[in-house]
Specification:
Elements lengths: L1 H10 L26 E14 L9 E2 L4 E19 L11 E10 L3 E13 L2 E12 L1 E2 L2 E2 L1 E5 L4 E4 L7 E13 L10 E15 L8 E3 L2 E4 L2 E13 L5 E13 L18 E13 L2 E15 L5 E2 L2 E2 L7 E18 L1
Parallel strand pairs: 2-21
Antiparallel strand pairs: 1-3, 1-21, 3-4, 4-5, 5-6, 6-11, 7-8, 9-10, 9-13, 11-12, 12-15, 13-14, 15-16, 16-17, 17-18, 18-21, 19-20
Length: 337
């Protein structure tokens, strides 16, 4: 709980802007503001994951790459937004808007529709809300929808279209461009910060029991936070349209959201991701995002052992500090119609 309070205190000064992979629609706004109220884009995602095995120990540490391959990720998302301009004539209010839209994402192991809305009452502040649901299946060992079986220490597939992942989010964005105070084409130093409250769940799962959605393991029903920051430099008349770094922080508000049997797992562990990125303009309506992800995951005080003659699961181990590792290379191709 104390970790969430520290993060909430920070983002009270700088609410929400979404550039993370879960918040696709807002990335397009970094590239271009369209005059038409209708906007449709197609996002194609690819990510490559090397393998970094866990390193037993205490405190913060680094896990080097220990294998060439730990998986790939593919996905296609269609995004539609309708923008309603709002009255305003002063410099801070003349571009006020209400935006509503939807997304539909499909990957080899999941499908996920979403409804979105955002409201900008003033130039540097945006409020956002989203409702998402989805279902999934297993493809080549990648689990889209699964629940944890404490008896055998494994995640077992749930029935697609019978079980559904769902998530509601509400947040705000603070965004600032240095060119607003320091006019010039080469003065676009962009800063964005966000805080988002999310409530997620899996139908048919009891509170406190772990489950998996889209190969993201050790999730439980309940609220959690998502904090995002971006510092970027936007360049005119160049193929590299923007370069910078983003940071993501997320976790449960309390370790009490996990069943008491998983107390040693540290349910409110703070997950961190630091990602340098570039945005390359391929054409008038085509852009390529390139990101490198360096993440902080749970570290454990010992190597995986045996429990009742089977391999021990991470949920049965003692969390001991954070473990930094190189997570993935991610590419996102965006075509705007």
């Amino acid at each position: 709980m104390k970790k969430a309070i520290v993060l909430a205190a920070f983002v009270a000064l700088a609410p929400f802007f979404a550039f993370a992979q879960d918040d696709i629609a807002e990335q397009e706004e970094l590239l271009e503001q369209k005059k038409s109220p209708h906007a449709f884009s197609l996002f194609t995602d690819f990510a490559y994951y090397p393998y970094s095995g866990p390193v037993a120990g205490n405190g913060e540490r680094f896990a080097p790459i220990s294998g060439a391959f730990d998986g790939v990720q593919l996905g296609v998302t269609g995004v539609y937004n309708y923008t309603i301009p709002l009255p305003g004539s002063k410099p801070l209010t003349k571009d006020n808007y209400l935006k509503v839209g939807g997304e539909f994402q499909i990957s080899p192991a999941t499908l996920m529709p979403s409804l979105t809305a955002s409201y900008s009452p003033i130039a540097f502040l945006v409020f956002n809300t989203r409702f998402t649901t989805g279902t999934g299946w297993e493809v080549l060992g990648s689990q889209g929808l699964a629940s944890y079986n404490a008896a055998n220490g494994k995640y077992e597939n749930l029935t697609p279209f019978k079980h559904w992942f769902y998530e509601f989010s509400l947040g705000g964005t603070f965004q600032f461009d240095a060119a607003a105070l320091w006019p010039g084409d080469w003065h676009h130093i962009v800063f964005m910060a966000s805080y988002e409250f999310r409530y997620n769940g899996m139908s048919g799962m009891a509170n406190g029991d772990p489950w998996c959605w889209a190969a993201d393991y050790h999730r439980v029903n309940g609220p959690y936070y998502f904090v995002y920051m971006l510092l970027g430099y936007q360049m005119p008349k160049l193929k590299v349209k923007m370069a910078g770094v983003q940071a993501e922080f997320k976790g449960c508000y309390s370790d009490g959201q996990f069943d008491s049997r998983y107390k040693a797992f540290d349910g409110d562990f703070l997950n961190v991701s630091l990602s340098p990125f570039v945005v390359v303009e391929l054409g008038k309506n085509d852009n390529l995002f390139i990101l490198l992800y360096f993440d902080r995951r749970r570290g454990f005080d010992s190597k995986q052992g045996k429990v009742n003659g089977r391999d021990q699961s991470f949920l049965e181990m003692n969390c001991s500090g954070g473990e930094w590792y190189f997570r993935r290379i991610a590419l996102r191709y965006v075509h705007s119609f």
